[in-house]
Amino acid sequence: MERRAWWRAVAPAAMVAAVACGGGGGGGGSSTPACDQSCIDGVAVLGLRDAIKLVYNVTLQGQPVGAQDQTTACSQGGTAHVHGTATSNADQGTTSVMLTYDFAQCHYSQVDSDPKQAFDLTITGSVTEQGIIAVQPSSTTSLAFQSDSMSIVGQVYSPGLDYNETACAVTLAQDGGNLSGTLCGRPAGAAL
Q1: What CA–CA distance (Å, rounded) separates 52 from 4?
Q2: Which residues of 111-130 are buried (b: 16+ CB within 10 A; e: fewer)?
Q3: What local confidence, expressed as pLDDT, does residue 92 receive?
Q4: Distance between CA 183 and CA 152 in Å, rounded?
Q5: What pLDDT, on a 0 to 100 scale, did the predictor assign at position 30?
Q6: Contact criterion met (CB below 8 Å) for 72 and 55
Q7: Run means of pLDDT, 10 residues per run, the chain, 192 residues
Q8: pLDDT number for residue 17
Q9: pTM of the predicted model, to two decimals?
């Protein structure tokens, strides 16, 4: 989290410098590897997962356990509403969740030195999150995400590639730092 916050502050200036120097790829070519459909979908699911995590952290982290119902403005436009239940187990350092996130034109972006961690997306639709969020390093996060219809539109990767998926089913599982499943019926995954 600290690393990404730092890049949000300095990345625009760094990108301007890289463009001014011919992209930094040497010989006029790009040093950024190509991003196929699997790569593009991986960045999109990372963006969706990070948006869910941000909404959770902004609305629910530190709140009393039990029934939850919070709405927040997304930092770049739109809203996110999260509702359901969250319970903690202090002995294990975990939080059990059964939550639904309703995104309405929620605009979320991230600039990163890793092109597979860069995105500028607008998310619309509902997704459920069920499982265990690790609070202590000795525990492992294990979550399932499900949506019958999500809209994920914008750009992914760096340099940005257009992304436009509407009415798209999403089924993902997070096991620790790995996210995998399907997006629009295609295999998709990302390292978190």
Answers
A1: 16
A2: bbeebbbbbbbbbbbebebe
A3: 86
A4: 10
A5: 57
A6: yes
A7: 40 40 42 89 98 96 92 97 94 92 98 96 98 88 97 97 97 97 97 92
A8: 38
A9: 0.83
User: Which residue reads 């998926």 in tokens?
Assistant: 165
Distance CA 192, CA 42 (A): 11
Write out the DSSP string of the chain. Answer: -HHHHHHHHHHHHHHHHHHHTGGGSSTTS--SPP--HHHHHHHHHHHHHHHHHHHHHHHTTTSPSEEEEEEEE-TTS-EEEEEEEEEEETTTTEEEEEEEEEEEEEEEEE--SSGGG-EEEEEEEEEEEEEEEE-STTS--EEEEEEEEEEEEEEETTTTEEEEEEEEEEEEEEETTEEEEEETTEEEEEE-
Q: How many CB atoms lie within 10 A of CB 86?
A: 21
